[in-house]
Automatic annotation (TrEMBL):
Native species: Micromonospora sicca
Record bears the keyword Transcription: yes
Record-linked PROSITE patterns: HTH_MERR_2 (PS50937)
Entries under SUPFAM superfamilies matching the protein: Putative DNA-binding domain (SSF46955)
Keywords on record: DNA-binding, Transcription, Transcription regulation
Gene3D superfamilies with a match to the protein in the record: 1.10.1660.10
Alphabetized InterPro entries for the sequence: DNA-bd_dom_put_sf, MerR-type_HTH_dom, MerR_fam
Name of the protein described by the UniProt record: MerR family transcriptional regulator
Protein origin, superkingdom: Bacteria
Length: 130
């Protein structure tokens, strides 16, 4: 299939596909007239790339998944290098969630303090003799 058909079937643009190619993730053949020609396996690779990008992986993280698919595996996440990336990414997400939890607790405490301070100020204002 030509680049336009692959782009349409993968739900992306030809520009994106050319970018993936420059990064070594997508591999077209060249026809006699120089057109990029893709086989069905490249569609699977592009779907894998897009799915991983959608959950926060960057293109360098995706390389092992693509290599795993190219090695003939039915999924890009069954190879040891892919599993290592998944573990690292999960640890990053867990760390991020811990930091968000700490921020949430700080904001909650700050809000509670602000409300308590406001209530004290309002009480003093109300209890002042005119």
């Amino acid at each position: 299939m030509l680049i336009g058909e692959l782009a349409e079937r993968a739900g992306t643009s030809t520009r994106t596909l050319r970018y993936y190619e420059t990064r070594g993730l997508v591999r077209p053949r060249r026809s006699a007239n120089g057109y990029r020609v893709y086989d069905e396996a490249e569609l699977r690779v592009v779907h894998e790339i897009r799915a991983l990008l959608a959950v926060g992986f960057d293109l360098d993280d995706i390389r092992p998944f693509v290599a795993c698919l190219r090695a003939g595996n039915s999924s890009g996440d069954v190879c040891p290098d892919s599993v290592a990336v998944l573990r690292r990414k999960l640890a990053e997400v867990d760390d991020y969630l811990d930091r968000l939890g700490a921020v949430r607790r700080q904001l909650h405490d700050q809000l509670a303090h602000a409300i308590a301070h406001r209530e004290k100020t309002c009480l003093r204002t109300r209890n002042r003799p005119d």
